[in-house]
Amino acid sequence: MTERSFSSRLSELLHFIYPDLNEDILTSQVLDAFWPEDTHRRKKPRKPGNNLWTQHDAVLITYGDTLIDGHHKPLDLMHDFLVNHMKGVVNGVHILPFFPFTSDDGFAVTDYRKVNPQLGEWSDITRIGSEFHLMSDLVLNHVSSQGVWFNAYRQGQKPYDKFFFEADPSDDVSMVVRPRTTSLLQEVETANGTRHVWCTFSHDQIDLDYRNPDVLLEILRIIRLHIDRGVRIIRLDAVAFLWKEIGTACIHLPQTHAVIQLLRLLMDYTTETVILLTETNVPKAENLSYFGHRNEAHVVYNFPLPPLVLHAMMSGSAKYLIDWQRTMPPAPLGCAYLNFTASHDGIGMRPAEGLLPPPEIGQIIDTIHEIGGKVSMRSLPGGGEAPYELNCTYFEATGRTFAGADDFHIERFLCSQTIPMSLEGIPAFYIHSMLATPNDVEAVERRGMNRAINRHRWDYPELQEKLADPDSVHARVLKMLSDRLKLRAEQPGFHPNATQFTLNLDQRIFGLWRQSLDRAQSIFTLHNVSGETVEIPNGELNLIADETWVDLLSGEEIQAGPVEMAPYQCRWITNRA
User: Fold this and answer.
1) Which of 225, 256, 411, 566 has its CA 20 to 30 A from that of 470?
2) Residue 378 contacts by C-beta under 8 Å, 6 or more apart in sequence?
3) Which residues are annotated as a binding site for substrate?
4) What's the rounded Cα separation, in Å, for the pair 344 and 482?
């Protein structure tokens, strides 16, 4: 793309988003916002390819204050944990919103330009970013009702008086899709009179109005600040809801996709390598749409994975996981999936819609209740509610099956975490999965929020003591997962874009064939999701003759003949060990 075509493409996108405004003026404003004085852009864009990531890439997801001791800055403690426990295990760290906030554990931001002083300061963020690929949250759909922007809006101060999306109570919003059951509009008093502002998520999170280009320009300035402070992966939080239009579902609108295309265009020209990740907790086709035509997100979350893996572990059958994986396309050139099972939120159930039959979803919910977990609901268009997410740590969620409790908890959990390591894409792990953290029921009662069950804050000295005991469940799980991630990083067959084929095996076995980009390494990844010993007959694995095949996880050589899988055992059988 030449300089002229870059400008033309940027102008086209701005004209589509803001058809009534002068795109030449807007183009100039965008360039000034994203590349201010003393910064410059590439002359040519990065070409789409498989070189933005390798098999060495894996991400740890954590809050900035997951580790506390009452004396040191939480970000100091996090740095200590990362250096002492995560070096060589992961090379990326997603620090969930580290800005000043008022609610939703950081997702109601009061100031995008500051680090929450209760966590630390920018120097602590940049220090982590100098040693790990740093991911930050761009909470671009909404801001805190108590933040600087909304206070200025209420006082009628320009330009903030037009920063927030307003609607009339008489407007028909029955089609609006959102993951909450609270009322959509909130009445507020402003210097310009009574207004009703749009609140997709909560009344403390007021939606921005991107019909006003000043909002987009300010977000671009914030992105530039974060890039300058070392951020290299930008997570576009709740981006699907960005553009609103009365009379529509107000999700996945064309203008939303155009804004993401604009951001991707800018990232393709940054001198820094910056990756865009879209957070769209929605069914498969809607989620995949955020790759665009290789011109939107570099990476999308593999949202169906958490509920499908959980169902496989609870049911002892990988049928629905296999059915889904067979229909998944490889990521487009220059794109990748982010594979995970657990996050700071619950286990999302919307992505399971159409993939798991309602009776199977019902069994999962019943089992989660038996474990002591919670279920959060969402509003349906036209009335009614449906399960939105399960609130439970993933470690606890794998504690029992549909048949009840057994002695395979750790083996089952380890299997569930090995699956995202084996799949095409980049694996990501919530810190509480790495630490086998139990449900924090006390936090739910104390905070009155279901999601608190999965957001435990560890006393760091207590955690260190547990990790120093090799027999503790926390030390055992951390070591086993760390060992597998280190082993994975050495295999070219696990490059995020390496070839993948879903194997046709016993439904208790979730099997994949991976092949490195240079075709030198094949890996047969096998996961027994049941509590039974399963034998894979001779001939069902295409082990090429005259080569030595070794199970990387057990170290044993695999001879011709049937392959036995113990309950919840995983195998990585390769011709290059």
Assistant:
1) 566
2) 178, 179, 180, 181, 350, 385, 386, 387, 388
3) 104, 142, 235-237, 344-345, 451
4) 20
Give the torsion through C-alpha atoms of 168, 172, 177, 179, to 10 deg. 50
Q: Which of 555, 530, 551, 554 is nearest to 541 (CA)?
A: 551
Annotated binding site: 104, 142, 235-237, 344-345, 451
Short-list 266, 232, 224, 60, CA closest to 134: 232
Active-site position among 207, 237, 268, 440 = 237
Spans of all domains in the chain? 143-207, 499-574
Q: For residue 295, give Cα distances in angstroms to 163, 219, 261, 262, 267.
A: 27, 19, 6, 9, 10
Given a contact cutoff of 8 angstroms between Cβ atoms, the answer to whether 301 and 283 are in contact is: no
Cβ atoms of 488 and 297 closer than 8 Å: no
Superfamily of domain 143-207 in CATH is Oligo-1,6-glucosidase; Domain 2 (3.90.400.10)
Q: Which residue has the tokens 């909560």?
A: 202
Task: Give burial (CB, 10 Å; 0-12/13-18/19+) of 51.
Answer: exposed
Give 539's contacts (C-beta < 8 A, 6+ positions apart): none
- Please state, in angstroms and rounded to a whole number, the distance separating the CA atoms of residues 94 and 57: 13
432 and 393 Cβ atoms separated by less than 8 Å? yes
Rounded Cα distance, 233 and 132, in Å: 11
Provide the strand spans (E) within 111-158: 133-138, 142-144
Query: Mind listing the pLDDT tens digit of every residue in the chain (577 residues)?
Result: 566 699 999 999 999 999 999 999 999 999 999 999 888 899 999 988 999 999 999 999 999 999 999 999 999 999 999 999 999 999 999 999 999 999 999 999 999 999 999 999 999 999 999 999 999 999 999 999 999 999 999 999 999 999 999 999 999 999 999 888 789 999 999 999 999 999 999 999 999 999 999 999 999 999 999 999 999 999 999 999 999 999 999 999 999 999 999 999 999 999 999 999 999 988 888 999 999 999 999 999 999 999 999 999 999 999 999 999 999 999 999 999 999 999 999 999 988 989 999 999 999 999 999 999 999 887 777 777 788 899 999 999 999 999 999 999 999 999 999 999 999 999 999 999 999 999 999 999 999 999 999 999 999 999 999 999 999 999 999 999 999 999 999 999 999 999 999 999 999 999 999 999 999 999 999 999 999 999 999 888 988 878 899 999 999 999 877 999 999 999 999 998 5
CATH number of the 499-574 domain:
2.60.40.1180
237 counts as catalytic: yes
In angstroms, how far is CA 324 from the centroid of its own chain?
19
* Angle 95-98-102 from CA coordinates, rounded to 5°: 135
Q: If you write DSSP's letter for every residue of 181-225 in order, what string do you get? A: -S-SEEEEEETTEEEEEE-SSBTTEEEB-TTSHHHHHHHHHHHHH
What does the block give as tokens for 539?
Answer: 């001939």
- Assess contact for 108 and 141: CB atoms under 8 A: no
The reply to whether omega before 381 is within 30° of 0 (cis) is no
